[in-house]
Design brief:
By secondary structure, this protein is an all-alpha fold. The chain is 85% helix and 0% strand. It folds into 2 domains: 47 residues, no CATH class; 96 residues. It contains 6 helices and no strands. Helix 4 packs antiparallel against helix 5, helix 4 packs parallel to helix 6 and helix 5 runs antiparallel to helix 6. The longest helix is centred in the middle third of the chain and has 64 residues.
């Protein structure tokens, strides 16, 4: 290298300064590019952030956190749905049991009406003029009135429309009424149902 060339390389003239500035700007651009790109990451949502956000999301674990959050929420919803389905099945089983109870109550009511009619006919054929016969007929009339009220209660039950707790309460009340009617009929007829 000649002395003139060495001096030219160290020259601080306008051309040397431009070359130094370009190198410096290039170095700053290369060093600052990742910082600048990270600053361009605008969203952790891959649909909104674009390419830069995608690279940052993959590199920084943002996407994996989003996936984990969504999977956790999904599992929570699945668990809640399974619990609700189990509760719905249990309610339907209870509803079916109450409907079966109501069906048996209807059959029992029909049997009580048949027994009342038989006892009434038996009292009339036996002469029914004595005070005891009249008292028994009066008890049969009371039992018949209870049967009519209980029938009305049974007609008012809507198994498909009412809450199960209400259905259970009404079914139990009807069963109690039927037990009382049965005891009234048994007193007159001399035997229990």
């Amino acid at each position: 290298m000649t002395d003139a060339q060495g001096k030219a390389g160290r020259a601080t003239g306008p051309t040397g300064m431009v070359k130094g500035a370009v190198r410096w700007v290039g170095w700053v651009a290369c060093a600052g590019l990742p910082v600048w790109l990270a600053g361009c990451a605008t969203s952790a949502d891959p649909h909104q952030g674009g390419f830069i956000s995608g690279v940052v999301g993959l590199a920084g674990g943002g996407y994996q956190r989003r996936i984990d959050e969504r999977e956790g929420a999904y599992q929570g919803e699945v668990t809640a749905q399974q619990r609700l389905q189990a509760e719905a099945r249990a309610v339907e089983q209870e509803r079916a049991a109450v409907q079966a109870d109501l069906k048996r109550a209807n059959a029992r009511l029909a049997e009580l009406e048949r027994r009342l009619a038989q006892q009434r006919a038996a009292l009339r054929t036996s002469g029914g003029r004595s005070a005891a016969s009249r008292a028994e007929l009066q008890r049969l009339d009371q039992a018949q009135a209870r049967v009519a009220r209980t029938k009305g209660s049974l007609r008012g039950v809507r198994p498909d429309e009412q809450p199960v707790t209400d259905l259970k309460a009404r079914s139990q009340a009807i069963q109690r009424d039927l037990d009382e009617i049965d005891s009234m009929v048994a007193t007159v007829g001399g035997k229990g149902f």
